[in-house]
Amino acid sequence: MLPEVDYNIEYAHIYADQFAQGEEFGEEHLKSIELTKDLVKRLETEGKTYCLCVLIDNYNAQFSLNQEQIFNELGGLGLSPDFIVEESLFAKNEISEKTLAQHLIESLSDKYVKKAKEKTALAIQSNNILGWANSNKKGFKEMFVEAVEKGENALEDLEDKSGYNFSSQTVLQYQEEQNTMYTCPLLTACWHLTRLGVKPFDKAAKHISVYSGKPFFGEKLITVLPSKYIKIEGMAMEIVSLAKSKTIKKKKNKMEYLFF
Question: Measured between alpha carbons, how far is 178 from 165 in angstroms, rounded to an integer?
Fold first, then answer.
């Protein structure tokens, strides 16, 4: 059995291109850090164990970031990570015989996956927000229910506010010239399954940067993000829930969120 903590926590999500172009930790990062500080205090009071992770969204980035610098800067802001992970890891062949992203596509139930020449998509509507959202964002579920009762125009307004498209399909991969490219919801789902120690996604843990002696894998996840990411996280949750494997499917219930 893999050594694990009660909670693997992601905070201070980083876009590589933005940082490489001179941007620094901004208001969203600072809010994430403050919320995570409060979160870990509560977990410590409850006697729960945890580790802190930062994900660098670098899959389509043109630049590499200095992870040591990121670690030091986060420490200066009062919350150092235990692990720093690059999202491109889940699209690399060197981890296993196929990319982890491809493995996840192949693990999905055939009835939900439709293939065309240039893309593979989940043939479902992404409208089950009440089924997965554990957002801790005050009033969000109430907003959704109210919008449903008011009708289509209110839903469109809510989509604009939340970034969540209630009727879109989820594209998983597409071709860009000679390269197979994977989408953010798919890579996000791989990331969550890695954090939970699900095979073969657990292999990615050997390729992450370690800054403490804490275990990486979590019995449960808490992801601290701005609410603008709710669409991506909802799609990632649906991808996990549509796996043929019950081991993967059940992990949906281990994924918690703190949106702000």
Answer: 30
